[in-house]
Amino acid sequence: MWVDLLSALGLAIALEGLAYAAFPGPMRRAMAAVSLQPEQALRMAGLAALAAGVFIVWLVRG
Asked: Three-state secondary structure along 8-61?
């Protein structure tokens, strides 16, 4: 279980690093736009991302 969790964490970090390496300007603008959003909108987006991630893992892992 821990191996799977650490593998998933490593993959998430690698994908985020790839986005910053490939598109530094757009990523900077995206982060600036995110910083202007109200906390409630960020919370809802985070919950939606959490639900989508859990759903994808559920689909893949059964």
From this structure: HHHHHHHHHHHHHHHCHHHHHHHHHHHHCCCHHHHHHHHHHHHHHHHHHHHHHH
